[in-house]
Specification:
It contains 7 helices and 7 strands, in the order βαααβββαβαββαα. A hairpin with a 4-residue loop joins strand 3 and strand 4.
Length: 222
């Protein structure tokens, strides 16, 4: 059993987000250097009260699973991540991440946190699909998502307006089958010990019983 290792990576670990964490997280959202990568609407610095309101709303949302991202070496909170908009029927959700401590950008912390969120999605939540949206000017984020296993599957043309011009928004996703192919062996997931496959499990083997042909009585000598 994985226990705490489920949420522990090489550089960071994921922990429960508490209201007291907003004292650290809140001030990050005053920086448009961060907001420009996660807000599709008009950018505005966020107040501490805005973040408290957001936290309270997330606590009431049964389809959201949010974490703080902490460094393993210092236990310092450097960001937040989560899985949102869970659809239990099709077993899908949306991934989001924001590292507010800009001193850790580009050093692998985001990739490590993303891998942990996917591990949680597939091994604990039994998700089949995890998707995200990212703006095409966020090159650092795109590289981190690709390293974690996301692939681009769509492009919304000129969906974002920023700095006086239009930008595309990319749709990326990871399917459980692809994630297991790359990571399953490390967690003992194989043909004899696998997670349920929704596509395979949905198949119903129908056995068509053919009527036995009763031989007709033959004539003498036949």
């Amino acid at each position: 059993m994985l226990g705490d290792d489920l949420l522990r990576g090489e550089l960071v670990y994921l922990d429960a987000m508490e209201r007291g964490d907003i004292e650290t997280i809140g001030p990050w959202w005053r920086s448009l250097n961060l907001v420009q990568y996660v807000r599709a609407d008009v950018m505005m610095p966020q107040t501490l009260q805005d973040e408290y309101d957001w936290f309270d709303n997330q606590r009431k949302d049964s389809g959201s699973y949010g974490f703080v991202v902490k460094r393993i070496d210092t236990s310092e909170v450097i960001g937040g991540t989560g899985l949102f908009g869970v659809n239990w029927q099709v077993r899908s959700c949306t991934f989001g991440i924001a590292l507010g401590d800009q001193s850790v950008w580009g050093k692998g912390y985001g990739t490590d946190a993303t891998r942990l969120a996917l591990r949680f999605a597939f091994l604990e939540m039994n998700m089949n699909r995890v998707e995200l949206r990212v703006y095409d000017y966020n090159n650092r984020g795109i590289r981190a998502y690709e390293k974690a296993g996301f692939v681009q599957e769509g492009r919304l043309r000129e969906a974002i307006y920023r700095d006086g011009r239009y930008w595309d928004e990319l749709v990326m996703s990871v399917l459980r089958a692809d994630w297991i192919k790359e990571n399953g062996e490390a967690f003992g997931i194989g043909p004899k010990n696998r997670l349920p496959d929704p596509a395979a499990d949905a198949k119903v083997n129908v056995v068509v019983k053919r009527k036995r042909r009763t031989p007709k009585k033959g004539r003498p000598g036949d």
